[in-house]
Known about the structure:
alpha+beta; Rossmann fold; Jelly Rolls; 2 domains; 10-stranded antiparallel beta sheet; 13 helices; 19 strands; globular
Amino acid sequence: xxxxxxxxxxxxxxxxxxxxxxxxxxxxxxxxxxxxxxxxxxxxxxxxxxxxxxxxxxxxxxxxxxxxxxxxxxxxxxxxxxxxxxxxxxxxxxxxxxxxxxxxxxxxxxxxxxxxxxxxxxxxxxxxxxxxxxxxxxxxxxxxxxxxxxxxxxxxxxxxxxxxxxxxxxxxxxxxxxxxxxxxxxxxxxxxxxxxxxxxxxxxxxxxxxxxxxxxxxxxxxxxxxxxxxxxxxxxxxxxxxxxxxxxxxxxxxxxxxxxxxxxxxxxxxxxxxxxxxxxxxxxxxxxxxxxxxxxxxxxxxxxxxxxxxxxxxxxxxxxxxxxxxxxxxxxxxxxxxxxxxxxxxxxxxxxxxxxxxxxxxxxxxxxxxxxxxxxxxxxxxxxxxxxxxxxxxxxxxxxxxxxxxxxxxxxxxxxx
Length: 417
């Protein structure tokens, strides 16, 4: 059952998916005083980037790190890259400790305003969970929410309205006085003024600059440069907003916030016979940067292979690989009706594997739960899934197998040994 607060606020946010204009590019709130004090003092300064494909690109992430290094040559600015394409704040909250916090960041940028809209059904719980985990680990870590833009958001921005998901994220940012930087405001302003083309095949068209080729991912030399410029404009206010010191941790907005979210390696999970530690399924996977995000990789190939575990919390899921050979599985929680799932989706293609999460639909009551997962003999409707997005199997023979590659269990809670 979803928490009453989350359900009510989610419905309200859809109706009130606006903020009184004009939209602000920056809400400085308590700013980033600790990291700028460290930059000024010199020494190692670690900047973490948690997000999806927009931040994964060699764009504003790299440009901002380089800019900080140039502005503060006395500091050694180090990057913690924690970006996985096509994933939102749910997976981000679960992998935070493994991918970010163990490296002790001084500054954490959180970018899920685009992917969160499609993958994240729990924006308050998950974004709040990221903050609470980070500040429990180190109250001096500065955090900044970053909102990117896609074509679906453009009309709202041009009308000085904030998209519904960002309204919810702003609730969290305001609660914790975390600054938020809205990259989309200036982009939308320039498009509306006729100074920028939002989408076209190349970065320059006639005498105008083009933001992106697909309406989502900015060109490095144009769109990402606009993102960097927005960050640079924000720096003076972020430096002066407050004095350095530990961040206070208030009561959560939602009692079911994901402050205990975790990624549990499969070594800690009871498995049936037949599961094997898997080598990289292809050179494409071995070369992919996402390889570092899975603690290990296990493979099930035979129908009926299963795993079981108990946990205390409100949600569970799994993370593994999406590929052409991804099969179908069945998950049963407690005595509830079984739920079928798959890591296969319309992005699957031959010889390509990428990190993919799956979450049990809906929230569970807080408490202890039993979970069983089983690989099914019946494959997912791969052709049908691809057809819905006007795609086909590029090499049909690559799609015949039905395997399950898993790297870990995802929990909003904790594992019960």
